[in-house]
């Protein structure tokens, strides 16, 4: 029995102690609720939310303003609006909401709706929201000393001047200007607190550089009182990886394709088509940039400058291509190349570009030969198309003896003193001749009259041709016409070859010049941005 009593005592002892503790806590909780209810009634009994909570009406109430930036939601460049997720932090002391904690045990602080007590009318001056005040009105936390904490969250839409001069390597600064709407500086002393960015959520398009704050006091002509405000400057840098991959790199590649116009052969017929296609592609990219940029004339975006310079290069390449095609397909009947064009393009530029005209080395001996043959033919005794006498004593022509080795080498056929190509510089010897019109002139004293008979004298060979004189004249005219046609064709081909070579020189010269100009424009324009190196090092690595 004694053992059972000891066991029951051990069991009921802890249970009774726990019951006692629970009863005390419940009693205190009920008493705290009663004190809190009574405190609410006493504080709001004679409270007027329109009255400034100060002891002296001539003294200003001190209000501290801070900002907690959570996220940069969007930066609308076209409408120049910044959208952020932020919390305001308002701190002030309300002398009418203080109490003695000893008279209200357990009541450390109270929570009042913002529409039941006095709150400072702090608004965002540069708000772009339809409701103007986009904050959510939460409860005001008040402690025993009357110190009030009001933290309204909100999606703030503010106007922001977007400077697109260095787009896409730009740094934007957007101001959030807060101030009292109806109280001047003598009634409400607005002071600033530090900005809290510890809970900031990074943005995929913008890097937050900093949010400095500054207190300003403005004086207006109408009033002598100061009007203080606190301005938070959201400084952010654009991340350029997206625009680099989708705008800049395609533009660089397209401008590189424009240089291929000068490498494309003129006979392909696609030089103009390629240039126009590249120009249209750049126009499409230019329209994409114009859609996201504000319609402002204050400054030209950096990327627009680059696109404009590239389009100018491509446009000039199309113009030069037209000139190249005009040179390449130049009509020989249009005349020879001007002397200054030949000197500039075929001499100076070709030497500078290390270009040689195709077949230049092969054509030089031919020109010398043709020149000598023309000299010799000009000294002949019979002109083309006019045969003064068909019976020509060839023995009267004197010349230095020509070497003869074989019968074929010594037998030169003459029609009116026309030489064969085997010995263009030597006329026939005096002991050989041609009998025209039925008479053979070969050796002295030979009177053979048989037409069409081939005879030879002691020192040579005579040929008798039984063709009437008009037939020979007609044959000579036809031969001279054919020879003249060949000479005209050779001259036309030489003229065309000169113009084609000039077109190739212009193509090569423009390829070098436009390549250098494109590289210089690319680096000069893009590297003129103040933070180009920083953007490339952070976003592209």
TrEMBL record:
The chain crosses the membrane at residues 241-266, 272-290, 302-325, 509-533. Residues 37-240 form the Neurotransmitter-gated ion-channel ligand-binding domain. The keyword Cell wall biogenesis/degradation does not apply. SUPFAM superfamilies: Neurotransmitter-gated ion-channel transmembrane pore, Nicotinic receptor ligand binding domain-like. It holds the Pfam family Neur_chan_memb. GO terms for molecular function: acetylcholine-gated monoatomic cation-selective channel activity; transmembrane signaling receptor activity. GO terms for cellular component: postsynaptic membrane. It comes from Cynoglossus semilaevis (Tongue sole). The lineage of its organism: Eukaryota, Metazoa, Chordata, Craniata, Vertebrata. Its main location: membrane. Residues 360-383 are annotated as: Disordered. Residues 247-525 form the Neurotransmitter-gated ion-channel transmembrane domain. Residues 364-373 have a biased composition (Basic residues). It is a multi-pass membrane protein. InterPro entries: Neur_chan_lig-bd (IPR006202), Neur_chan_lig-bd_sf (IPR036734), Neur_channel (IPR006201), Neuro-gated_channel_TM_sf (IPR036719), Neuro_actylchol_rec (IPR038050), Neurotrans-gated_channel_TM (IPR006029), Neurotransmitter_ion_chnl_CS (IPR018000), Nicotinic_acetylcholine_rcpt (IPR002394). It is found in: Postsynaptic cell membrane. This is Neuronal acetylcholine receptor subunit alpha-7. Keywords: Cell membrane, Disulfide bond, Glycoprotein, Ion channel, Ion transport, Ligand-gated ion channel, Membrane, Postsynaptic cell membrane, Receptor, Signal, Synapse, Transmembrane, Transmembrane helix, Transport. It catalyses: guanidine(out) = guanidine(in); K(+)(in) = K(+)(out); L-arginine(in) = L-arginine(out); Na(+)(in) = Na(+)(out). Belongs to the ligand-gated ion channel (TC 1.A.9) family. Acetylcholine receptor (TC 1.A.9.1) subfamily. Alpha-7/CHRNA7 sub-subfamily. CDD domains: LGIC_TM_cation.
């Amino acid at each position: 029995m004694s053992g059972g009593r000891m066991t029951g005592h051990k069991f009921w002892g802890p249970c009774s102690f726990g019951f006692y503790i629970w009863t005390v806590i419940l009693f205190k909780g009920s008493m705290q609720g009663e004190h809190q209810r009574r405190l609410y009634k006493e504080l709001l009994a004679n409270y007027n939310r329109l009255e400034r909570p100060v002891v002296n009406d001539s003294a200003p109430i001190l209000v501290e303003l801070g900002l907690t930036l959570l996220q940069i939601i969007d930066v609308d460049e076209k409408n120049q609006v910044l959208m952020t997720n932020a919390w305001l932090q308002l701190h002030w002391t309300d002398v009418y909401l203080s109490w003695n904690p000893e008279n209200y045990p357990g009541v450390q602080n109270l929570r009042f709706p913002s529409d039941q007590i006095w709150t400072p009318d702090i608004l965002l001056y540069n708000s772009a929201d339809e409701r103007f005040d986009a904050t959510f009105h939460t409860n005001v936390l008040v402690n025993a000393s009357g110190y009030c904490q009001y933290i309204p969250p909100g999606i703030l839409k503010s106007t922001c001047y977007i400077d697109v001069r260095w787009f896409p390597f730009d740094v934007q600064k957007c101001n959030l200007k807060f101030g009292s709407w109806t109280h001047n500086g003598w009634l409400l002393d607005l002071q600033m607190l530090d900005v809290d960015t510890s809970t900031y959520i990074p943005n995929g398009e913008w890097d937050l550089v900093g949010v400095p704050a500054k207190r300003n006091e403005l004086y207006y002509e109408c009033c002598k009182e100061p009007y203080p405000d606190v301005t938070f400057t959201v400084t952010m840098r654009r991340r350029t990886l997206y625009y680099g991959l989708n705008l800049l790199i395609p533009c660089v590649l397209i401008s590189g394709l424009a240089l291929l116009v000068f490498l494309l052969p003129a006979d392909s017929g696609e030089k103009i088509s390629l240039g126009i296609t590249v120009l249209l592609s750049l126009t499409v990219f230019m329209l994409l940039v114009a859609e996201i940029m504000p319609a402002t004339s204050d400054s030209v975006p950096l990327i627009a400058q680059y696109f404009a310079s590239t389009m100018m290069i491509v446009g000039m390449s199309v113009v030069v291509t037209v000139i190249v095609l005009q040179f390449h397909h130049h009509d020989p009947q249009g005349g020879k190349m001007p002397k200054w064009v030949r000197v500039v393009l075929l001499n100076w530029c070709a030497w500078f570009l290390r270009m040689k005209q195709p077949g230049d080395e092969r054509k030089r001996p031919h020109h010398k030969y043709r020149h000598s043959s023309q000299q010799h033919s000009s000294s002949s005794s019979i002109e083309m198309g006019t045969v003064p006498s068909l019976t020509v004593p060839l023995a009267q022509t004197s010349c230095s003896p020509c070497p003869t080795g074989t019968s074929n080498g010594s037998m030169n056929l003459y029609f009116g003193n026309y030489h064969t190509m085997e010995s263009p510089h030597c006329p026939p010897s005096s002991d050989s001749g041609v009998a025209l019109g039925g008479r053979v002139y070969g050796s002295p004293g030979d009177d053979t009259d048989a037409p069409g008979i081939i005879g030879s004298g002691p020192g040579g060979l005579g040929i008798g041709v039984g063709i009437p004189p008009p037939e020979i004249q007609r044959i000579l005219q036809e031969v001279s016409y054919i020879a003249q046609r060949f000479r005209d064709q050779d001259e036309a081909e030489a003229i065309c070859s000169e113009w084609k070579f000039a077109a190739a020189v212009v193509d090569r010269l423009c390829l070098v010049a436009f390549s250098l100009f494109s590289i210089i424009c690319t680096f000069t324009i893009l590297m003129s941005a103040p933070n180009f190196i920083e953007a490339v090092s952070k976003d592209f690595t």
